[in-house]
Amino acid sequence: MAMNFARFAIMPVWLSVAAFLLHTASNTVRHTPLPQQASSQDGKLRRSYHEQPPTGKLPATLDADQFTENKTAFVAYSIAAMIPTLLYQEPCYCPCDKMEGHQSLLDCYISQHGVHCHICARGVIFTYDQARAGKSAVEIRAAMEKGGLWEFDREKYVAAHYSEYKHPRD
Question: What are phi and psi of 46, to 5 degrees?
């Protein structure tokens, strides 16, 4: 019996260590960009995007009206419908390029992928905000690469602008 008691006495220490490790890992993952798709000659990893504007017609984004109950998705799909050419030239920072074959941020919004991916929502809203400030596709990519994407408050933007996107549809 004494041996079983000793094992239970150590249990709280083990749980405390596990909780600390999970907390540390979750904070690290949340602030670290995900691995990129391919390496270039300089050894830097690259994400999928198109360097030039499209030469043909782009596919339509999904209709934002089907996501009115999900405010973030509604705003993201509303914005995506307004700036498809820019999204075609911007990378997505989630692993959808590897997992779903996406070639740019636009691909996240011609499918249902953008509904639940907060990284994609952050990307489309950041792109729109930067474009409204007069930035080009190249400048927006550079701002993303420098970490601007992670500093942008997606939730605050959605809360402040949801009614703007909802209003024209009502």
Answer: -125, 150
Helical H segments across the chain, by residue range: 2-31, 71-82, 84-88, 96-99, 113-116, 118-132, 137-145, 148-151, 154-166
pLDDT tens, residue by residue, 17-60: 444 444 333 333 333 233 334 334 444 556 778 888 888 999 99
Quick one: 141 exposed, middle or buried, by C-beta within 10 A (0-12, 13-18, 19+)? buried
Contacts of 39 (CB under 8 A, 6+ apart): 45, 46
Average pLDDT, the chain: 75
Backbone angles phi, psi at 169, to 5 degrees: -85, -20
Write the DSSP symbol of residue 57.
Answer: P
pLDDT digits over 98-128, tens only?
666 678 889 889 999 889 988 899 999 999 9
SS3 state of residue 112: coil
Please state, in angstroms and rounded to a whole number, the distance separating the CA atoms of residues 94 and 47: 9
